[in-house]
Amino acid sequence: MVPLLSVRNLTIGFGKGDPVVRDVNFDVAEGETLALVGESGSGKTVSCRAVLRVLPKVAQIRSGSITFRDGANTTDLVTLPERAMRNLRGNQISMIFQEPMRSLSPLHRIGNQVVEVLWLHGRKSETSAKKEVLACFDRVGFPDPERTYSSYPFELSGGMRQRAMIAMAMVAKPKLLIADEPTTALDVTTQAQVLGLMKELQRDTGMAMILVTHDLGVVANMAEQVVVMHKGRVMESGAAEPLLSAPAHAYTRALMKAAPQIPANATPKPIEPATDLILEMNNVSKTYSMRAGKGWKAPSLIYACRGIDLHLPRGKTLAIVGESGSGKTTAARIALGAEPPDQGGQVLFRATKGADPIEVHQMDRTARTAFQREAQMVFQDPYSSLSPRMRIFDTMVEPLEIHRIGSRAEQRDKAAEMLQMVGLERDMLQRYPHAFSGGQRQRLSIARALMLDPSLLVCDEPTSALDVSVQEQILRLLEKIRDQKQLSYLFISHDLAVVARIADEVAVMRRGLVVEQASPETLFYNPQHPYTKALIAAQPEPDIHRPIDLDLVAQGAGSPEKWPERFRFAGYEAPPLVPLEPGHKVRCHV
Amino acid sequence: MPILRYALYRFGTMLLTLWVVSILVFAIINLPPGDYLSNQIAELRASGQSAGVAKAEFLRGEYALDKPLWQQYFIWVGFLPGPHGFSGLLQGNFGWSFEFDSPVAEIVGDSLWLTVLVNLAAVVFVYVVALPLGVLAAARARSWVDYTSAFVGYLGLATPNFLLALILFYYGHRWFDLPIGGLMDPTFEGLPMSWEKVKSILIHLIVPTFVIGTSGASAMMQRLRANMLDELGKPYVETAVAKGMSPTRMLAKYPLRVAFNPFVADIGNLLPAMISGSVLVSVVLGLQTIGPTLLTALKTQDMFLSGFVLMFVALLTLIGTMISDVLLVLLDPRIRYEGRKA
Description:
The complex is a heterodimer.
Chain A (H helix, E strand, L loop, with lengths): L4 E10 L4 E10 L4 E5 L6 H9 L6 E12 L2 E4 L5 H7 L4 E4 L13 H11 L5 H14 L5 H5 L8 H13 L5 E5 L7 H18 L2 E6 L2 H7 L2 E6 L2 E7 H6 L4 H9 L18 E14 L9 E14 L3 E5 L6 H8 L10 E4 L8 E2 L5 H10 E4 L13 H11 L5 H14 L16 H13 L5 E5 L7 H18 L2 E6 L2 H7 L2 E6 L2 E6 L1 H6 L4 H9 L11 H8 L19 E5 L2 E4 L3
Parallel strand pairs in A: 3-8, 3-9, 6-7, 7-8, 13-18, 13-19, 16-17, 17-18
Antiparallel strand pairs in A: 1-2, 1-4, 4-5, 9-10, 11-12, 11-14, 14-15, 19-20, 20-22, 21-22
Chain B lengths: L1 H28 L6 H11 L3 H13 L6 H9 L18 E2 L4 E2 H36 L4 H15 L2 H16 L18 H38 L2 H9 L3 H7 L1 H11 L1 H19 L4 H10 L3 H29 L1 H4 L6
Antiparallel strand pairs in B: 1-2
Helix pairs in contact in B: 1-14, 2-3, 5-6, 5-8, 5-12, 6-8, 7-8, 7-12, 8-11, 8-12, 11-14, 12-13, 12-14, 13-14
């Protein structure tokens, strides 16, 4: 059978430089999903964009052909005139982009942006076009299509925006859908639902799909064919099942190995009660009040954190897991004293065993200075957490200067020592951040946090902006440093698989509340709470025989008012957090 | 109608601001020691003309200049009765110009609406020129179109207005037979409006509009270009292309719409900059706008006249900002629905 799309010897270069995509071949059959897998810089995005010719201006297709078959006709998309190409875009071949937040115009109504596809391809009268769009909205899961039609993008959540993007791509019933990292920017549970939706739509319409992703778990759940790319070349390609179960190429094997996994079987391990706590958070709540639009109305309150009790034993890692908006970052900020908790909350920090605790929730200036030397933070985005205008050396020694520690020479030695500790070279001190890759920047960020020899490190999603293989390296580095320097970590993440390997105890948060808390082994082997179960189920595994269980995800990730009786919230009333067994707490009625 | 409510609210705040401005203006015109009359009296005394002194003293009483400053303020605005009852700005009495020895309203008269006319023409010129050129420069960024327009724009920014005015007058007159100076043919001055007069004014407007508008237009063009370039890199532009839109249509619908915001927001800043900027031009070109009058009034401490002119300029500015604010709310749903999101 002739494939729907066939890419032959595709070579693409930027400007006069070396090609970024070399000699790439792949075929997409009708109704089939092809996954383009690779890390950033592998050329996967450029290759898939070349199909629609939506490339950056400096990029040129140097050689090769992209043949698209429409019925009996075949067209070469590389040489097709621009005007004819336009008729194809959005109509026969459409595309979904990575960032649903920014891929829709903020100033136009969603309905207008979607219906435009039908107008552009001149297929429909005004009223029937609208009807079709409404049907499509209904299909992708908007509860109230009419309302969505007249909404603006900023009124929708990320997952809903991605659904709108899908509707936009699907509305003209294309033969081929190109999805460029469609779920990377979404929470795991939302990701699972969006992937489920895409699969369902594909089954209904019989369209083919090119899925670009870095996540082998997503691949295992979605694709029939896989193309693994690295540095612009295809490393390995073939049917998904044999490729994933027995990868032939070393690079694919490395990718598989780097992908963090939730262990399939684990023995529950109870947490022994600790006596030496470095950080203690007792009854910590945080309420923000939103300025009300109207002066006569009371401001609306947002409960970011509610009654959190967390204890971090010295030398251990406590992880807080949850989706965006669950309050995990707020909890971390309070733990660091960046924000005071509400009245009645208590945060205690003990620098050494048995020392007088620093009351983090009410520090004065001297206490704060002393606390800062003990507790530091590693941030999520290594690209924006280093000043682009400061040399690495200045960035590194700044904490020492603030706290007036050491002479210039001592500071320099310390900086060099820390750089070596995180696996970088001494001579990199004079460079600026732009000379470093994402992974190296995160190493720098860690090195900076270590400059003051702290005893507590708060890591706020330190790996979520990184490629899987780099993520693996950073996690290994964090573990090494923890053991070497006897550090304690408060680790914030939305990724259970990452947490599974590094944490000694995990607290799962939803709506500002801890819903379940246990050792990772217990949590994964014997999860009790529906939300925890949903998080685990939503985690895409690079194992083709363990597909995402969408029902579990839907139930647990849905609104807490619809959880099973035992766990259900009633507005702000939630069940108490009770210990089911030693070291395993669940928010439920007993 | 939320937009109507917002417009009303914005009008309310405008009145409030205007009131604060009136206090500031009054304070500023009273900053130099003495007033027009006391200066004059001192001068008359020195030259021994006691008859004049009596008249000046009489005027001082007449215009309440012998009262404490805060009372003078309230009388000037019209919150308090003066020697002749309530008769301040609020009641439509703009005061007396000592320098020209006639009511402010009479001196200002025609030049008020001529000022508005010249500056409106300049604003329209700025927008009409900057909009297409800015978009074009962004769409064809780093091409000869972009570089040429930038070069011409910087020339426009860098050339002093009065110099540009003189050059334009010279060549305009030589090549196109454009009139030199003034805002209408002298024969029409003081005559009622007629078709001929309108035509004469329009022809006289060409050069001043160009002179006053050029620098604003080139600045605005560069701003629009920069904004457009920012927007062109955004993913939603890519989405639009992937939908199959033609470049022109895409450009007009998406990035331009977003880049339009600062463009509109500038209306408020443009008006005062032009009015104060056009003072010099008006003097050079001999335009009968309010600018030269303001200059004389400030120089001679003619307080009621300068106070009125300053208030008038402030009013124009405030109206400009109000218009741009209301337009922004109309244009940008993110501003409109700020409260709805929560």
